[in-house]
Amino acid sequence: MDLGLNGKVALVAGGSAGIGLAIARDLVREGAAVSIAGRDPGRLAKARDEIRAELGAEVGTRALDVRDTAATRAWVDDVAAEHGAVHIAVANAGGPPAGPTGAFGADDYRAALELGMIAHIAFVQAALPHLRRAGWGRILLVTSETIREIIPKFALSGIVRPGLIGYAKTLVHELGPGDVTVNVLAPGYTATDALLADLTGDAEAETARVAAEAGIPLGRVARPEEVAAVGTFLLSARASFVTGTVQVVDGGRSLGM
């Protein structure tokens, strides 16, 4: 299936590993020019080399913290200057620490808000003028299933992330007619480095245990590429009438309507 992404220019924040890297790979396969950003230069170089070896293509890299608004804006503008346009913005960042509400102080809540909501919005605001200028754009906010269903042990995530739904839906109406869409991708338990780092023993057995404890009907956690496939579709020309949505990818765990 041709997703209509050949020649598009894409920015993927948090693109050095996990779901972000899997989305970047998909975009490269579809013929897009891709730049990935992340905090760790070593992980960025490893991701770049993996894509080069696997797909025979080059991706741009930029070491930055997405909470640094000026650095993020400079990345966006530099990529636009290099390629002549920006069409796709994937806002993605790590999540706040796990724990109940009482485990955190006011500064922890502020930090979670900065990472889980404000950094995403600032990145999108930096990219929007370029998307409007190009006359075609896709914005994807990568968050968590906690944006739709509260999981008490992930209190910070469930408190700060839902604001992105309000932002996305409001932005859709502000954008109005045209071909710029805004969607939210909400993964459930996924075999990313963050999840695997907390496990001991056989990874397959341990992730199956996590899935059972979480009540995932499919009996396993997601692979990053499975979540990325949904995100890449939302970024495609095929999804031209899909905007303002929250797409949960959780293996059927959520019971909400």
From TrEMBL:
Pfam family name, one: adh_short_C2
Enzyme class: oxidoreductase
Signal sequence extent: none
This protein's UniProt keywords: Oxidoreductase
MF GO annotations: 3-oxoacyl-[acyl-carrier-protein] reductase (NADPH) activity
EC number in record: 1.1.1.100
Domain of life: Bacteria
InterPro entries: NAD(P)-bd_dom_sf (IPR036291), SDR (IPR050259), SDR_fam (IPR002347)
PANTHER family: 3-OXOACYL-(ACYL-CARRIER-PROTEIN) REDUCTASE, NADPH-DEPENDENT REDUCTASE BACG
Family per similarity comment: Belongs to the short-chain dehydrogenases/reductases (SDR) family.
Protein name, per record: 3-oxoacyl-[acyl-carrier protein] reductase
Species name: Actinomadura algeriensis
